């Protein structure tokens, strides 16, 4: 029996085999979607760029070359994406910027997912007035356009990449709370929850031990779908000067830096924009594919 | 919402249904607005590092600081502060802007028409292009046209709008010179017409100042097309899925059997039914344009709400930022509400449910 047959067996011998088989089928379905695979490669390339940035980048991202000779050089073999007004190599800065982008995405996911999960599962499981209050709060957060609310938060906290991350996280949890609540409502009355309750499990134990793990997977898919939006919001904040501060090589802030002289030296603002575009396209393609695979109900 | 309707039979039920619905709606909106206010209050009074320092600056003496502390009411309990804030905001007083030294409310009222004009032209472009494209890609589902539209839509979702704006200026303004540059109108035309509505296209057209109209048009077309592209991506995608659902219905088969021409089935029979949920989509993307306008206005120096907000952000002008945030939030809520109402007005199934 090959490994493939073992995975695709209709009669799994163990839970582990069934679960592995399920994941393998999902993977096969995803693999057959060419656009989703392009997305996956882009995301993997981003991760690789972030990890190996110091090895790939030919120059220092923060210290520029000779200000008399190396400023605002057009793209060439020496400087693949040209140099900026401080004679820094843009290609190296874009490579290092991948680290910041990845950090923003990861931290927002790590902060927003637990908030959304906790609020959603609590509201769904407890029901009653707790549900009403928590869902009202969620709706109120949804009532603000995301970027605008993030702007207001950053204006109170002060500019900087950490505050931008907090602001984006504070504005991205509501959809996850909604989703987790909907999932919880379908789980709440199932037999295994009743069994746990009859055995005397506390509410907290049922919530954390039984309900939350089951909501986790669909929330994670939703977070993946949102990642392109998170990247664009972070870049927007950076562009407005409220995210990462110079000289950090954040892509949005780099576009803002090149904005003044875009007509004469187009590459300074264009190159980081291409990076944002490609990466968020990658996340969108991957997310689209994942949704098609994991949610057969979605209209194709 | 229908499940909350009281179960009363007879003709009176329709009236009590609408009454119940209206009460519920008003309550929901009131709670949401209160929530918006609470969030902006918390941002300005609790999260903010030191609101007094913001006003007086870090070189103020202790006595100035203390006087300001008292003047801002920060010695009072927090719920009392919120009450004062509530009263002020409800009477239209958002405080003065530190930047312009004028009341924030007046600043916002002056900036708003510019944003309204930009968003309206954008949504017109988005709808007039997005709906036919969506219909056609539903008809040609899976074919080349559909695939191209899908990719173009994904590009719209993925590209940062401020970057596309800069590239647009570079290509269409600086190189090709097809459109005018940043701003709403050239300085030469600024006084050739009187501002009545604040919407320049409307004002110039009404006064017959066609040269000024043309100039204003060449200023608005690039930012509006960009914003319109983003809403187009969403509108065409939704149109496509609504149309796919309609085209699979039995009445379409019936019409085909009866010999109704295919174009009539698509553009009249099916589109008419798909149009009902589309109204909601258009209203929501209109609201979404407010968000996009913050970055677009910054790039195009468009003197609207978004630019006002970002200019105030640069100097940490909290009153102006929160006033702008609140107004945009309120418009957002209002548009959501409007789309809800339109939906129940337009969909005969929602109406009929009342009579049953």
Descriptive notes:
With 300 residues, chain A is mostly helical. Chain A has one domain: MetI-like (MetI-like fold). The longest helix of chain A is centred in the middle third of the chain and has 37 residues. Chain A is flat and about 80 Å long. Chain A starts with a helix and ends in a 6-residue tail after the last helix. The relative contact order of chain A is 0.14. With 356 residues, chain B is mostly helical. Chain B has 2 domains: 89 residues, no CATH class; 252 residues, MetI-like (MetI-like fold, Orthogonal Bundle). Chain B is built from 14 helices and no strands. The two termini of chain B are 15 Å apart. The N terminus of chain B is likely disordered.
> How much is the radius of gyration of chain B in Å?
25 Å
The count of helical stretches of chain A stands at 11
General shape of chain B: globular
- Number of helix segments of chain B? 14
Low-confidence stretches of chain A: none
Question: How are the secondary structure elements laid out?
Answer:
The complex is a heterodimer of chains A (300) and B (356).
Chain A: H1 3-8, H2 15-31, H3 34-56, H4 90-126, H5 128-143, H6 146-157, H7 161-187, H8 191-198, H9 203-239, H10 251-258, H11 267-294
Chain B: H1 12-47, H2 51-56, H3 62-71, H4 78-90, H5 104-139, H6 144-158, H7 161-175, H8 200-206, H9 210-247, H10 250-258, H11 262-300, H12 305-314, H13 318-346, H14 348-355
Helix pairs in contact in B: 1-13, 5-6, 5-9, 5-11, 6-9, 7-9, 7-11, 8-9, 9-11, 11-12, 11-13, 12-13, 13-14
